[in-house]
Write a structure and sequence with these properties.
369 residues; alpha/beta; Rossmann fold; Arc Repressor Mutant, subunit A; 2 domains; five-stranded parallel beta sheet; two-stranded antiparallel sheet; 12% strand; binds adenosine-5'-triphosphate; binds magnesium ion
């Protein structure tokens, strides 16, 4: 069985390193501090939040994923759903269901995944004034055994039309819940900054900020090598260093490339450097449709700019040599192209560099594009 995991939260034996960060977070949980965890995409934010709660003896996790929410109604439903799932096997369950009876909650087990699913009456719209009530319900869970609340992809709250009102209502309740640790996790840096560091945001300086960095080569390569040896495959540093480079050191992307390397090699063998090409081709084949879809959204100028960043890197996009290679003679057209590529979630800005969100798309472009 392929031992590499990507795209999901990893924990236990699949979780590598981060001892200091885990200790820091568990310390904050124990002292009921609110924290905010930020970092690049696929770097391991959700996993470190999850693993920290597991590491705290006996803490219960109330995990609420806010990815893609579009309304206050959706926000409240996600929280309520998490509460119902958390309490489904406890003796408080009936009481909670009674409290929520106006929403007609119903629980069922998904026949395919065997996961419990909760649904509420879709015809009732949950309004902003219910936010305090929903948080009071979390507080009442705390009276029995406090949960650690994790709001993942918290930045998506800014997608709501009335996001300021939602944040203000959340904050006004959370600040008095001093026994319940809240962990806010988010990835789009400037959006999380907008929530936690802007003076006029209700959440201004309301949580201790922590950053998740890529795992070190030393620690992560050891962990990955061990996975390769589960059926006596051997990989040397020369190839692994290339894997880290292609994946820009991002753990999720590194594991994705290792997963593909595993698929194109076999047990009891030394993995040869040419297998890296096969592994990339496997990823390209799996992802080609989405790459083509992206390209179909671009104008010729935007595509030229993207190709130039794939080839030359995105550090000095207004330099003469970059513009020459991209075929531009005007920095404002580069700027416009980059703005569009960022809006489409193809590029993101990291420090003073424009980088590909998906490093495999970057690798594919000069190869096939
Ligand atoms: N500590 C770790 N040990 C091993 N692999 C890890 C670790 N952290 C992250 N990964 C790898 O990264 C992948 C993504 O992890 P996770 O979902 O926690 O990241 P994230 O930063 O929350 O991502 P996203 O930006 O998509 O929300 C995992 O599936 C795994 O492949
Ligand atoms: Mg995540």
């Amino acid at each position: 069985m392929n031992p590499f995991k990507y795209g999901t939260i990893v924990s236990g034996k699949d979780f590598c390193g981060r001892k200091t960060l885990l200790k820091q977070i568990t310390g904050y949980i124990e002292s009921s501090q609110h924290i905010v965890i930020m970092g690049e995409r696929r770097v391991g934010k959700s996993s470190v939040a999850y693993e920290s709660v597991l590491k705290c003896n006996g803490e219960r996790l109330l995990y609420v994923d806010l990815l893609g929410i579009k309304s206050i109604d959706a926000l409240c439903r996600r929280i309520l759903r998490a509460i119902v799932i958390l309490e489904q096997k406890t003796r408080w369950f009936d009481k909670i269901i009674k409290t929520l009876s106006y929403l007609r909650p119903s629980i069922s087990v998904d026949p395919i995944t065997s996961m419990p699913t909760v649904s509420f009456d879709a015809s009732v719209e949950i309004k902003a004034n219910s936010i305090p009530e929903v948080l009071t319900l979390i507080e009442s869970l705390g009276k029995k055994r406090r949960p650690v609340v994790v709001f993942d992809e918290f930045q998506d709250i800014l997608n709501l039309e009335d996001s300021h009102e939602a944040l203000a209502l959340l904050r006004s309740k959370i600040q008095f819940q001093s026994d319940i640790p809240y962990i806010f996790v988010g990835s789009i840096r400037h959006k999380m900054d907008e929530i936690f560091t802007h003076h006029d945001s209700p959440f201004f300086k309301s949580a201790i900020p922590l950053t998740v960095d890529p795992l070190s080569y030393e620690e992560f390569s050891k962990f990955l090598k061990k996975k390769f040896t589960t059926d006596q495959r051997k990989i040397d540093n020369e190839i692994l260093k290339k894997v880290f480079k292609i994946a820009n050191d991002i753990p999720g992307d590194i594991q994705q490339l290792c997963e593909a390397l595993w698929e194109v090699t076999s047990g009891k063998k030394i993995i040869s450097p040419d297998k890296l090409k096969n592994a990339l081709e496997l990823i390209f084949a799996r992802e080609q449709k989405s790459y083509e879809n992206y390209i179909s959204l671009l104008t010729n100028i935007q595509l030229k700019c993207l190709m130039a960043i794939a080839k030359e890197g995105g550090k000095s996009v207004f330099s003469v040599s970059f513009m020459k290679s991209a075929g531009f003679n005007n920095p404002s057209s580069v700027r416009r192209a980059i703005t569009r590529l960022t809006k489409l979630n193809i590029l993101f800005e990291s420090g003073n560099e424009h980088r590909f969100i998906n490093p495999f798309f970057r690798a594919w472009l000069p190869y096939k594009g």
